[in-house]
């Protein structure tokens, strides 16, 4: 779990069904909590309330654990939006169990193949450039490559919150993906994220744009073949072409990527081209 001062998030993998339903809890502008080993999700709710009241992560975790009679069986990590982090590994957690706390993050695990899992995760998180979601995914992949859960693989999840960073700016859910049962859950989680990113995240390279006027004929031909455009293929991006393009984009769940100017995102245009090829439409692109 980690924060960059804007986003808060958690990435997790385990030999456990639907680990994303149990371990991660977070609140935008407040922090994130991961409760595992013999997880107690109630700790997450309590700790988040304590963080919101102004306590730091150490005090919030200590206060919550004092109310848990089985705390020696727990493993809990906490990070606040302010960047402070802490973690706790109970004495009865199954070996190998441990944690690493760094600036703005905490890495923890139990029933691991060894301490190298945590060390690789921490190193990956610290060295990866990009947004918090990229750092969390790299850390999770590094831990998986280092051996991860010594019982094997089953599920993985990632949750990242950003104020108004979700769908159309109407939620705080920037990324929320789960792989509940899969032979290679971390790889599958990354595959799902690539779809989520393409469809929902507005973080394209600002230079990766294409002038509508330069591809009007191609887009008209494709949209005509797909049944969205009924006009002539004349090469002018007119109102009918714009409406047809928006209708296609909405059906493909790209409403988050529609631009109200003279350009198309390169990622969306490439998707349209690939969709035309997949459908067997003859185009000159």
TrEMBL record:
SUPFAM superfamilies: N-terminal nucleophile aminohydrolases (Ntn hydrolases) (SSF56235). Residues 199-272 form the Putative peptidoglycan binding domain. InterPro entries: DUF1028 (IPR010430), Ntn_hydrolases_N (IPR029055), PG-bd_2 (IPR014927). Coiled coil: none annotated. This is Major pilin protein fimA.
């Amino acid at each position: 779990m980690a924060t960059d001062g804007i986003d808060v998030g958690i990435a997790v993998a385990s030999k456990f069904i639907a680990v994303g339903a149990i371990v991660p809890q977070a609140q935008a502008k407040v922090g994130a909590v991961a409760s595992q080993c013999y997880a107690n999700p109630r700790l997450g709710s309590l700790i988040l309330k304590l963080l919101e009241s102004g306590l730091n992560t150490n005090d919030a975790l200590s206060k919550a654990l004092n109310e848990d009679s089985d705390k020696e069986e727990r493993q809990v990590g906490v990070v606040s939006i302010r960047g402070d982090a802490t973690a706790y590994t109970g004495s009865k957690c199954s070996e190998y169990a441990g944690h690493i706390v760094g600036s703005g993050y905490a890495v923890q695990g139990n029933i691991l193949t060894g301490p190298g899992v945590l060390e690789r995760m921490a190193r990956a998180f610290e060295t990866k450039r990009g947004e918090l979601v990229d750092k969390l995914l790299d850390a999770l992949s590094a831990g998986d490559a280092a051996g991860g859960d010594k019982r094997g693989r089953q599920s993985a999840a990632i949750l990242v919150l950003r104020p108004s960073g979700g769908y159309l700016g109407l939620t705080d859910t920037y990324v929320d993906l789960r792989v509940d049962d899969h032979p290679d859950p971390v790889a599958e989680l990354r595959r799902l994220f690539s779809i989520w990113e393409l469809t929902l995240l507005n973080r394209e390279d600002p230079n990766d744009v294409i002038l509508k006027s330069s591809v009007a004929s191609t887009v008209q031909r494709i949209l005509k073949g797909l049944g969205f455009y009924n006009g002539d293929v004349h090469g002018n991006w007119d109102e009918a072409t714009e409406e047809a393009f928006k209708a296609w984009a909405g059906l493909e769940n790209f409403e988050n990527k529609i631009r109200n100017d003279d350009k198309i995102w390169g990622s969306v245009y490439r998707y349209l081209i690939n969709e035309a090829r997949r459908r067997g439409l003859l185009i000159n692109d």
